[in-house]
Automatic annotation (TrEMBL), chain A:
It comes from the Bacteria. It is found in: Cell membrane. Belongs to the binding-protein-dependent transport system permease family. It is a multi-pass membrane protein. This is Sugar ABC transporter permease. GO terms for cellular component: plasma membrane. The chain crosses the membrane at residues 12-33, 71-94, 106-127, 139-160, 181-206, 239-260. GO terms for biological process: transmembrane transport. InterPro entries: MetI-like, MetI-like_sf.
Automatic annotation (TrEMBL), chain B:
Gene3D superfamilies: Periplasmic binding protein-like II. PROSITE patterns: PROKAR_LIPOPROTEIN. It is found in: Cell envelope. Residues 1-26 form the signal peptide. It comes from Catellatospora bangladeshensis. InterPro entries: Bact_solute-bd_prot1, SBP. Keywords: Signal, Transport. GO terms for cellular component: cell envelope. CDD domains: PBP2_TMBP_like. This is Sugar ABC transporter substrate-binding protein. Belongs to the bacterial solute-binding protein 1 family.
UniProtKB/TrEMBL annotation, chain C:
The keyword Cell membrane applies. It comes from Catellatospora bangladeshensis. Keywords: Cell membrane, Membrane, Transmembrane, Transmembrane helix, Transport. One of its GO terms (biological process) is transmembrane transport. This is Sugar ABC transporter permease.
Length: 275, 421, 324
């Protein structure tokens, strides 16, 4: 009796979860199907489900946008921002967590204050800086502000605070200086924190629209997000082509996620519960 | 955290005051017309990119030291991004200009006056339609060489007209003919409509305003015409179509743009320009099913004429080379290349190539329209009141406010903006 | 466990960690250690100063200026703020943005329910479910917006086609002023659900089984257990997610930018006034009409809104967030 009730509850749980998962996945299935239809078939009422295998929708995306370049741009930007943040943030985070110096609380507060400010407050002056440097329409303009992050410092500092103090005390007794301790004791132990930050930065960078949309108007220098948004400017509501483009642009991260799923989930869970 | 943030914020100023960002001084090489240069050339029409690239290649053949990079920015973002690029000093060397923007760009010294260069090269501006030369002349100086022109007509779906037993539209048809046809071509229950009453001036309501005998802006560009009763009739033409369910409402057209509705056989007519030949000629659905007809005649016969010009950025690093390129684009050989694959070239006498290249449609409709065409209405800050047109007319098209009221409000707002110019 | 160890850093982080050896050994003069510290902090410090802190001050300054159509600006005092106070479009955008923030919080209970289901002992396929829920999180927001714009299409979209099976005629979701905001909120919740589930699931897994066993001995049923054990112990995660959700919603841009339609399509979208966000309006003014002084004033208002909201959340947290 109790056994069967428990089984029933389990079936109910699976039922709810399957329903939820379906709501998550069906939009993407419909995106894929639409991307292979003609406009006429995509706008039929009632709808046809089977695709027409119209691959030319994908060809059109490639014809009209330098998709290959944009893919590369996005990858370069993500890699540069991630490398920059991992290095710079971990340096600062280590100092804040482990070293004593005058003005530590003040400086950290200053860093934190950046976290609360919406990005819209930065972009006009950031744009002016890029214009003054002559960097508009270059990858450098997209990358530069993203090399530094208050959030990254904050997250890694939390991580360093959680590491046992005996470690650096021991290293210190062995005569290691702060730089050595940072590089050969702390960094290797901080791998989970670095991984979490890395994943968040890659995701944020890959998907970012606001800043790239503003600084780069040359399609060859755009990232995928901005390029995709401009696709809508050209094709208006030619949904099959738009679905093909959006699928192409989002697929790389989805594939990487599928492969590195465990790390993604851990990284997110870590950042969510660590901060 | 709060205390830290507060103290942090308090000294923020002191902490960053020392930081200054040095702008690098732009060097200004004064290069001769054939010195090595790469010019950027910004355009917005995806369909014209191949022919623009062909023109660029033809130019490089004659000027081996100058290469031209064609940059496509979609229409929806073109002006936003161009302005941003100009502000940031990253404007393209040569770019497409249109009527609504030329005075703003000329007035602010963003584009180079070409009058001296035209005189120096002894170019005859009489080879372009006068309406276009006037459009690009500001305070007596020409700022761009006309590239092409376009007029508006009715694109119609022959299959849907035949199925409804309606005679194909032809020269001489009137508003009444149009309305009678619209009634027969609509079946809202099945999602079939006669036409999409899009809020777009050039292809839609500007035409009917002038056909009704009204005007958008006074000839001196100082006063709005939206409070003229005839103008309001020109707007009512469209709001009535929506009210009678002979056009989809704005909600449907937001979700699916009229051009996609037309290209999937849900609209019998699409008011469009001569520029649509490329799109409709390539699209698998429309290439065999549609053709063009002149706009119907109201109180008057009218169509909006507009054309683009090539302009040179005032801040280009290569002024001599950029002018060389613009001069080439305005020449007869360039017009002939353009006519074969692009829009109607502005250079008089080169339009036959365009007709021949688009023989599957009745392209003559758009050339004949020049005789009764009305110039595109502009002022010094056209964009400002164009914005107001959207705001006020959206309310009229949804039926939220009566069209008279929306038009009068629009006139008030527009006059206020014109006074500020 | 991590939760209880550190506390929500947002709440505590600024209390400087006690220096080894306590306050007595706090350095009073320039030491080599401090030198290293400044050196290590320098790159991020300079980067933040140049690209973030200084720009905030500059934006504040710009909010008192008026810009020409192609750059150049002059001081106009409070003009922008006066115009702001009288601007119905800005007021509507503020209201919309607040609604996005408040309604977006509805995603939290939903995520807790799914996380609780996933946390049931002996449930199989947890990682598969979790992965499926997570896909929207890793999908580019521009792509998500395009897909939903298509699904929501009033005439041909999947949503209305499915509804018509049940004889319901759905509206033009994102072009109808009555539904557009709610339709967009639903997409925000949909897109963020997987993230929240993962955070909550990690929080739930950190709650020791014994707590539930003890509650059961006290005679608490599943509902009472959830109220007395789960919710209090999960409250730090809930707080974290809600702060993040509100800040995210207050800065909403991409979804509306793409879903409302590009350029002219957005301008003739009858629902636009009801979904325009503060950041969307900012983008419009700063980079479309080039009215940067006014745009700066708009985001200063947003800053005030965020500070107020966050302060309220931190004030309220004392009443309901339990740190173990």
């Amino acid at each position: 009796m109790a056994e069967s009730r428990a089984q029933g509850r389990m079936a109910g749980t699976h039922g709810t979860l399957i329903l939820g998962a379906a709501v998550m996945v069906i939009p993407f299935a419909w995106q894929l199907l639409t991307s292979l239809k003609t406009l006429t078939n995509a706008t039929r009422v009632p709808p046809t489900i089977a695709p027409d295998w119209r691959w030319s929708n994908y060809a059109q995306v490639f014809e009209l946008l330098p998709f290959g370049d944009q893919f590369l741009n996005t990858a370069v930007v993500a890699a540069a921002r991630t490398a920059g943040q991992l290095l710079f943030c971990s340096m600062a985070a280590y100092a804040f967590a482990r070293l004593r110096f005058p003005g530590r609380g003040l400086l950290f507060g200053l860093f934190l204050s950046v976290l609360m400010v919406p990005p819209a407050l930065f972009v006009i002056p950031q744009y002016e800086i890029m214009a003054d440097l002559g960097w508009l329409n270059s990858l450098g303009a997209i990358i530069a502000p993203g090399l530094f992050s208050a959030f990254g410092v904050f997250l890694l500092r939390q991580f360093f605070l959680g590491l046992p103090r005996e470690l650096d005390e021991a290293a210190r007794l062995d005569g290691a200086g702060p730089l050595r301790i940072y590089w050969s004791v702390m960094l290797p132990l901080a791998k989970p924190g670095l991984l979490a930050l890395g994943i968040l930065v890659v995701l944020a960078s890959w998907n970012d629209l606001f800043w790239p949309l503003i600084v780069n108007t040359d399609p060859e220098q755009m990232t995928l997000s901005a390029g995709l948004a401009s696709l809508q400017g050209q094709f208006q509501t030619d949904y099959p082509v738009l679905m093909a483009g959006s699928l192409l642009a989002s697929l790389p991260v989805i594939v990487v996620f599928t492969v590195l799923q465990r790390h993604f989930i851990q990284g997110i869970a870590f950042s969510g519960n660590k901060s | 955290m709060w205390k830290a943030v507060r103290t942090g914020a308090a000294v923020m100023a002191a902490a960053v005051l020392a930081v200054t960002v040095a702008g690098c001084g732009a060097d200004e090489p004064t290069a001769g017309a054939d010195e090595k240069a790469t010019l950027s050339y910004a355009v917005w029409d995806k369909n014209q990119v191949p022919v623009m690239e062909e023109l660029a290649a033809a130019f490089t053949e004659d000027h081996p030291n100058i290469t031209v990079e064609v940059q496509l920015t979609p229409w929806a973002d073109y002006w936003t991004k161009l302005r941003a690029a100009v502000t940031g000093g990253a404007a393209p060397d040569v770019f497409w200009m249109n009527g609504p923007n030329v005075q703003l760009y000329a007035d602010n010294g963003v584009i180079m006056p070409l009058a001296d260069k035209v005189a120096e090269a002894k170019l005859d501006l009489g080879v372009y339609p006068k309406a276009l030369v006037d459009l690009y002349t500001f305070e007596g100086k020409i700022y761009g060489l006309p590239k092409d022109f376009d007029t508006v007509g009715v694109w119609f779906n022959k299959e849907l007209f035949d199925a409804a037993g309606v005679k194909h539209p032809a020269a001489g048809w009137t508003w009444d003919d149009f309305k009678a046809a619209a009634a027969k071509l609509s079946n809202p229950a099945k999602g079939q409509y006669a036409v999409g009453a899009n809020i777009a001036g050039q292809e839609y309501f500007y035409n009917t305003i002038y056909q009704a005998g009204g005007n958008v802006i006074s000839a001196d560009g100082k006063k709005s015409g939206y409070d003229d009763p005839a103008t309001i009739e020109g707007l009512r033409f469209w709001t009535d179509l929506i009210k009678n369910k002979q056009s989809p409402d704005l909600k449907t057209m937001t979700d699916t743009h009229p051009i996609q509705l037309f290209e999937s056989g849900k609209l019998a007519m699409y008011w469009g320009g001569s520029w649509n030949v490329t799109e409709f000629g390539n699209n698998e659905y429309t290439k065999t099913r549609v053709d063009a007809a002149p706009l119907p005649t109201g109180v008057k016969q009218a169509t909006i004429i507009h054309g683009l010009a090539n302009v040179v950025s005032a801040k280009t690093k290569y002024p001599a080379q950029a002018w060389e390129f613009v001069k080439f684009l305005g020449s007869k050989p360039a017009a002939e290349i353009l006519g074969k694959k692009g829009p109607i070239p502005a250079y008089t006498g080169t339009q036959d190539a365009w007709l021949a290249a688009n023989a599957k449609f009745n392209g003559k409709v758009f050339l004949d329209a020049v005789s009764y065409a009305v110039p595109y209405p502009v002022s010094r800050n056209t964009a400002a009141w164009n914005d107001e047109e959207f705001k006020q007319l959206t309310k009229a098209y949804t039926g939220e406010v009566p069209v008279e009221q929306a038009a009068k409000e629009l006139a008030t707002q527009m006059n206020a903006l014109l006074a500020k110019e | 466990m991590v939760m209880t160890e550190e506390g929500i850093a947002a709440g505590r982080a600024a209390v400087p960690a006690p220096a080894p050896g306590g306050r007595a050994r706090r350095p009073r003069r320039w030491t080599a250690e401090a030198g290293w510290a400044y050196l290590l902090i320098a790159p991020t410090g300079l980067g933040l100063a140049v690209f973030y802190l200084w720009p905030v001050l500059q934006t504040g300054y710009f909010s008192f200026t008026e810009w020409g159509p192609f750059g150049g600006h002059e001081w106009v005092g409070l003009d922008n703020y006066r115009a702001l106070a009288a601007d119905a479009e800005v007021r509507q955008a503020l209201v919309n943005t607040l609604l996005f923030a408040l309604l977006g919080l509805l995603g939290i209970p939903l995520a807790i329910v799914f996380a609780a289901l996933l946390n049931r002992p002996k449930l199989r396929g947890v990682s598969v479910y979790r992965a499926l829920f997570f896909i929207p999180v890793v999908t580019m927001p521009v792509a998500v917006a395009m897909v939903w714009r298509w699904l929501y299409n009033g005439d041909f979209g999947l949503v209305n086609q499915l509804l018509s099976v049940f004889g319901v005629e759905g509206p033009h979701w994102i072009a109808d002023p009555a539904t557009a905001l709610y339709a967009l909120v639903a997409v925000c919740i949909w897109a963020g659900l997987g993230y929240n589930i993962v955070v909550f699931l990690a929080g739930l897994q950190a709650i020791p089984r014994e707590f539930y066993e003890a509650a059961e001995i006290d005679g608490a049923g599943p509902v009472a257990q959830f109220r007395r054990v789960t919710l209090p112990l999960l409250s730090p995660s809930i707080f974290f997610v809600s702060v993040l959700s509100v800040i995210g919603s207050l800065q909403l841009f991409d979804l509306v930018y793409v879903m409302a339609g590009s350029g002219q399509a957005a301008r003739s979208n009858p629902a636009m006034p009801r979904i325009q966000t503060v950041v969307g309006l900012f983008y419009d003014k700063a980079f479309y009409t080039n009215d940067r002084g006014y745009a700066a004033a708009i985001v200063m208002a947003l800053l005030v809104l965020i500070v107020v909201f966050t302060a309220i959340q931190f004030r309220l947290q004392k009443r309901w967030v339990h740190y173990g």
